[in-house]
Design goal:
148 residues; alpha+beta; four-stranded mixed β-sheet; two-stranded antiparallel ribbon; 4 helices; 24% strand; globular
Length: 148
């Protein structure tokens, strides 16, 4: 190794850098790790959000609120917004037993992925009714997050 050079080991690779390149290399490695971590986290959130919606729609079909999953989509029962927090909004729930089951599904999902924060809201009105100006009656607002 020549004087004025340092070697770095990254994922089984040896990287040799001159002193004026060290900061650029370190910044590039840190940036790559940060981007990859964000991608993995985002993918997990999106995957988990989709799984949870599928499970909630299965429940709504079994409880006869929807004929099938396409009917649930057409009736706009379940909405999600996955980001760093998974926000779930369920419309048209008037039966307490169904509400309790949906809460249970969210608790199970949080137990599986405790690092993800879940925010659940349920309304008695359908999405269509709220778009027509009928005020929403909130039956539940629930936040599940990891203790610090």
């Amino acid at each position: 190794m020549k004087t004025g050079q340092d070697s770095y080991y990254l994922g089984g690779l040896t990287i040799i850098a001159r002193p004026n390149v060290r900061c650029q290399l370190l910044l590039a490695v840190v940036l790559a790790i940060a981007i990859c971590t964000g991608c993995i986290s985002s993918h997990v959130h999106q995957t988990q959000a989709r799984e949870l919606v599928d499970t909630i729609e299965d429940l709504l079909v079994s409880e006869k609120l929807c004929g099938d999953k396409n009917d649930c989509v057409d009736k706009q029962y379940v909405f999600i917004r996955p980001s760093m927090v998974i926000e779930i909004t369920v419309y048209g729930v008037t039966d307490r037993s169904i509400a309790k089951k949906i809460i249970g599904l969210c608790i199970d999902a949080h137990a599986k992925y405790p690092e993800i924060q879940y925010e659940l809201e349920m309304y008695t009105q359908t999405k269509e009714e709220t778009l027509k100006g009928i005020p929403k009656t909130t039956i539940l607002q629930l936040i599940l997050k990891k203790e610090k």
